[in-house]
Amino acid sequence: MIGGDRVVAVVPARAGSKSVPGKNIRPLGGKPLIAWSIDVAKAVPAIDRVIVSTDGAEIAGVARKHGAEVYDRPAALATDAAQVTDALRDLIRTLRRERETAAIMVLLEPTAPLRLPGDVAACLDLMVARGLDSVATFKEADLNPHRAWKLVDGRPETFLPGVDPWQRRQALPAAHQLNGAVYVFSIDGLMEGAGKGGLSLLFGKTGAVAMPQERSIDIDTLLDFATAEALVAASEASSFDKLTLRQAQDEEQEITSP
User: Fold this and answer.
1) Could you tell me whether strands 155-158 and 149-152 are parallel, antiparallel, or unpaired per DSSP bridges?
2) In this structure, are residues 115 and 17 in contact, taking their beta carbons and an 8 Å threshold?
3) Pairing of the two strands 176-186 and 134-140
4) Domains and CATH numbers, the chain
5) Contact 33, 115 (CB under 8 A)
6) Which residues contact 31 (CB under 8 A, 6 or more apart)?
7) pLDDT value at position 83?
8) CA angle, corner 122, sides to 30 and 23, nearest 5?
9) Which of 60, 154, 219, 244 has the most neighbouring CB atoms within 10 Å?
10) Phi, psi torsion values for 179, nearest 5 degrees
11) Stated pTM of the model
């Protein structure tokens, strides 16, 4: 609970990954991928419930073993074409029927395992402190848009008109991108967007929390898994556990929209 509001964390985990079969329960650093997100959610004091939304029996078993509640996701909302916002709204309707009164939801994709409890807490604190509707985590952009190109009839043009793509990196304006690690949002706000065709998890009065590149990995391929394994192995075995919530919060740089 935070600011008098109950908080529900949701870890969405489909069973039908095409890029890496069984991805959500594939071991990373000695435990299933999905367990990383569950453990982080359980370590945030403000989170009242941790729910895994899945259509897979194996995923459900692993999730329960690691202390999460499990809600079955309808098959129609577990296809490649299904939107996570639709699955979340379906889950919210179920929770409301069960008399859950939570006002805030935290979405933790299992593919971002290296986030810390402090990253989640920083988003929640920012949302409540500034009266925001939604907050998400960002990282420095992999490619600054000032250096992006487009090919038109075999001819290169700068993606942004009139920019100089040859500027030194230090002279370029800062650019960030969503890293998919944490989304925090008003449950009522997400439901209100349903009638407007809203697919975004970042809506209304928004805020952002910056995370470093080394904690922003988003696992989609076997190469991503290998990179994540290397990052985990390179760190001290207990470094993630030893970082206190306060230390993690101190690392964050806030970027907030007006």
Assistant:
1) antiparallel
2) no
3) antiparallel
4) 7-143+176-256 (3.90.550.10)
5) no
6) 66
7) 86
8) 30
9) 219
10) -110, -5
11) 0.83
